[in-house]
Amino acid sequence: MASTDKPAARVDVAIIGAGLSGSCIARQLSAYEIDTVLLEKECDVSMGVSRANSGIVHGGFHHNLKYLKSKLEIRGNLMYDRLQRELDFPFKRCGILVVALNEEEMKHIDHLYTQGLENGAIGIEMCSRERMFELEPKLNSDCVGGLHAPGGGVLEPYRFVFSVIESAQKNGVEVLTNFAVERAERSNGHYRIHAADGRTVEARYVVNAAGLFADSVSRIFGAEEFKVTPRKGEYYLLDRATEAGPQRVLFPVPTKVSKGMLVIPTVEGTVLIGPTAEEIEDKEDLSTNAEQLGQILDQARKMVPKVSQTDVITAFSGLRPAVGDGDFYIDISKKAPNFIQVAGIQSPGLTAAPAIGEYVKDLLKKAGCKLSEKADWDPFISKLPRIRDLSPYEADELVSDNPGYANVVCRCEKISEAEIVEAIRRGHTTLDVVKYFTRAGMGRCQAGFCSYKVFKLLMRETGMSYKDIRKRGAGTEVLQDAL
Amino acid sequence: MKELHYDVLIIGAGAGGLAAAVEVSKHDTSCALVERESHLGGILVQCIHNGFGLEEFKEELTGPEFADRQVQQVLASNVDVYTDTTVTQLDADGDLKEAYCFSPAYGVLKITAHAVILAMGCRERNRGNIRTPGTRPAGVYTAGLAQRLVNIEGYIPGKDVVIVGSGDIGLIMARRMTWVGAKVHAVIEIQPYPSGLTRNIVQCLNDFDIPLYLSHVVSRIEGKDRIEKVRVCPLANGIPDEDNSFDIPCDTLLLSVGLVPENELSKEAGVQINPQTNGALVDATMMTSVDGVFSCGNVLHVHDLADWVAEEARRTGRYAVAYLRDERPKRQIRIKAGANVRYINPTMLDPDNPDKLYFRSLIVKNQAKLHLKLDHNPVKEVKISHVQPSEMLHVKVKPKDVASWNIMKDSVLEVSVE
Predict the structure, then answer these.
(1) What Rg value do the Cα atoms of chain A yield, rounded?
(2) d(C-alpha A23, C-alpha A19), whole Å
(3) Mind listing the pLDDT tens digit for each residue in A392-430?
(4) β-strands B252-255, B140-142: how paired?
(5) Which of A230, B196, B201, B291 has the fewest CB atoms lying closer than 10 Å?
(6) Would B2-123+260-328 and B126-257 be classified into the same CATH topology?
(7) Which residue, among B106, B109, B107, B85, has the nearest Cα to B98 in the 3D structure?
(8) What mean pLDDT is predicted for residues A254-277?
(9) B2-123+260-328 domain in CATH 3.90.190.20?
(10) How far is B128 from chain A, CA to nearest CA, in Å?
């Protein structure tokens, strides 16, 4: 990630955590005449909670409006069409179906439908069995009916963060990566924030969007004591060639603790199934487990019998940062001055993220931060060509300017050299982030074919040695020696 | 966009595509050979060990030498070669097939041809395909990728290696990693018998005292940043016996857990796939369910030997040329995989022009017998000293065999092993 090494001497707002919430807050603030810095402890943005989740823009019926998360979900959902036009990320309002497999579950659908109506979820529809099969012919024949929320959709969360950050940077926000906040002290109305590597930033206002680590960050600033409990969700990713891919996101009827395991047609054409839900202790434990993974296939097959283990191309897990009663915890700190808490952003955090940006902007204003609009704020970022979205004729027109668009590096996802080079030139120099940015290596061969090509492009573009090629941060070097 | 026309388009320039191209060029036929890598020879060029060419060139060669022999023949022919060129779309419905090809040198090309030979080879199954749980650290590679890194790029992925799967690439890499100074701690095989050729077990494991754990699986990968260890678990009646599992520390895990014919392009072109092989269903002339589209080599079914790929591809080239001349079989009968046979290729026989059949056994047996039955009547029997699923078998049906057969229009030839 392109990051400034020089510490920003003094800014108005420091946001801690460059995930979905932090980046949306940063972009929102970039529209005002203030200096904002975004601090990220990892080597790149979107490396925590935002990296691995279901990638769903929710339909507005899962939660009662008494919860903050429900209000922000409804508002956030409505913001996505405009964001897509401005920020060039793949997003599809494919709709959501909740699948009832018996009459008992149908009663719950009633409740969700009423809740959706009260929430103002657009186009929400109770469905008969016939209607369900019309909408989704691949459903299990046991389906007795369900709920249709056409306003729900899918996107790639990390890809969204990259776009939001790019827009924020374009409008003056500074992003500091590898900036692990270690301590902070307050004097003369400013926080002085120290990173583990010795860098410091001074800020009048601090926004704590540190995801799983929001509790530690809160403690560092002498703000509220609370605990973030990681709840792990494991997923299987299925080959785009699977016959199990539905048209819409399929939810089971939710339980008290979770929305259940879903079958998700991803915006890029693969199929995601999961997540499980398991409370754990270790905030860095992203391992998958045989027992948990086994449940995923069973549960997914209950909705779509064609889900097959032979279609699995990878498994991964993500962590939900749960706080307290499960609602978002977004508020002005009552203990630490000029400190805004943005914690407990689990589902529907992605849906809500743009609305969280607005909401936190308002909180900052309330806390006394002077916000006057920039005359020259530019909400648009330039579009990057993706050969997978182009016809051969359109692709051919790019080649005269840049032959790299005709060099297919990742055959499974059809990613060109030019797209990978663009990611690298923007400072994404680890294998995982090149993958998240471009999709190279995300397909059925899981980088078996394109790894060495990406290694070479990284070395060519950055001048790095083979020893510096990393999967993620330090310690994840992939090559140990040369002949 | 440039448009070019040929009689035959061959997709993929490995052992199969090269052999097919040489054959096609011998018949006064124009031919384009399209290869996505920058070199010709496909995976052969990273197979720097010997054992190639005994049948094809009657001498023992390394992979690159085998490829070079084929490449020299192609370069001496009238075949037009396009390297660094990826076919992204094949429209094969009509008489004239259209392929869109991405090439940095020429831009996006549209190549049209009357016949297409699919020779794209296969890909390696990976960790996700075998659903191994655990962390996702650096240091986990497919064996073929590791082979590429060591033999072509000159990098060593790690020093303490465990290999999952006893497929040939895994075995070859066990030896190769040992030779570059790494310690190979174990090869873990889920089956009760090795998946690779016996000669490779002897030359790559036994000669280096590398232990082979049969009926074992890697049940977990551990290590946060770099892989630190794997949990190895014996199978008791096919079920993992976690109580008797043990850890092997390592910094590198290589996966040699099978190959899958890469037929995504074929499927999009409408080619029917045989679920037993993941390759196309082909008739006696190696033609797929799509008229004028042929398939050979590892994209048709995974072969043990490059020599056999070349043999099959040469035949395929000949059939493609015959197709252009409207020389099609007068009749074909179905071939059925019978008892203890996983699959057989091709799946049709031309009684007027019988040829070689490749197949795999489902059983391990010494002194086995191959039975050919026509409409349930025994018509041919062949003794085979040893059969096992990992060793591909073949039988040549000769014109003199067929001469005495009572072939009806809907006759079925069944091949079984006992």
Answers:
(1) 22
(2) 6
(3) 999 999 999 999 999 999 999 999 999 999 999 999 999
(4) parallel
(5) B291
(6) yes
(7) B109
(8) 92
(9) no
(10) 4
Domain B126-257 carries which CATH code? Answer: 3.50.50.60
Interface of B with A in 199-238 (CB under 8 A): 219-220, 222, 224-226
Q: Which of A287, A290, A313 lies closest to B128 in CB terms?
A: A313
Q: What is the pLDDT of residue A2?
A: 56
Residues of A taking part in catalysis:
58
Residues A411 and A266 grouped into a single domain: no
Q: What Cα–Cα distance (Å) separates residue B401 from each residue in A332, B353, B394?
A: 89, 11, 16
Domains held by chain A: number: 3
| Ramachandran angles phi, psi of B86, nearest 5° | -110, 125
What does pLDDT average to over chain A?
95
**Which residues, in sequence order, are bridge partners of residue B217?**
B233
Q: Which domain holds residue A267?
A: 91-154+230-320
Domain boundaries, chain B: 2-123+260-328, 126-257, 336-417
Does A247 map to a domain? yes
Q: Are residues A344 and A299 in the same domain?
A: no
pLDDT in tens, B331-340: 999 999 999 9
- Round the average pLDDT of chain B to a whole number and report it: 96
Q: Is B341 exposed, middle or buried (0-12, 13-18, 19+ CB in 10 A)?
A: buried
Q: Is residue A275 part of a domain?
A: yes
pLDDT of the residue at B301: 97
Distances (CA, A) of B155 to B228, B275, B306: 20, 37, 26
Query: Is the domain of A313 the same as that of A239?
Result: yes
Stated as kind and residue range, the H or E segment containing A116 is: helix A103-119
Q: Are residues A189 and A201 in the same domain?
A: yes
What is the C-alpha to C-alpha distance for residues A149 and B260, in angstroms, rounded to an integer? Answer: 39
The pLDDT, as a whole number, for residue B197 is: 86
Unique residue bearing structure tokens 């959902």: A77
Kind and range of the H or E run holding A454: helix A451-462
Whether pLDDT at B259 is above 80: yes
A108 and A170: one domain? no
Rounded percentage of chain A residues whose pLDDT exceeds 70 = 98
pLDDT at A4: 55
B275's CB contacts (< 8 A; 6+ apart) are: none
Same-domain pairing of A172 and A140: no
Residues 282-301 of B with CB under 8 A from A: none
pLDDT tens digits, one per residue of B350-396 = 999 999 999 999 999 999 999 999 999 999 999 999 999 888 999 99
* A247 and A219 in a common domain: no
**Is A377 within a domain?**
no
**Residue A91 banded pLDDT, cuts 50, 70, 90:** very high
Q: Name the 3-class secondary structure at A271.
A: strand
Contact (Cβ atoms closer than 8 angstroms) between residue B127 and residue B143: no
* Mean local confidence (pLDDT), A435-440: 97
Do A296 and A335 sit in the same domain of this protein? no
- A205 in a structural domain: yes
For the segment A148-167, what is each residue's pLDDT rounded down to a tens digit? 999 999 999 999 999 999 99
Upper half-sphere CA count for residue B231 (Cβ side, 13 Å): 19
pLDDT of residue A6: 57
CB contact under 8 A, B128 and A237: yes
Q: Is the pLDDT of residue A8 over 70?
A: no
Residue B180, chain A, CB below 8 Å: the answer is yes
Write the CATH number for A110: 3.30.9.10
Which of B110, B131, B138 lies nearest to residue A478, judging by beta carbons?
B138
Q: Which two tokens stand for residue A81?
A: 């069409």
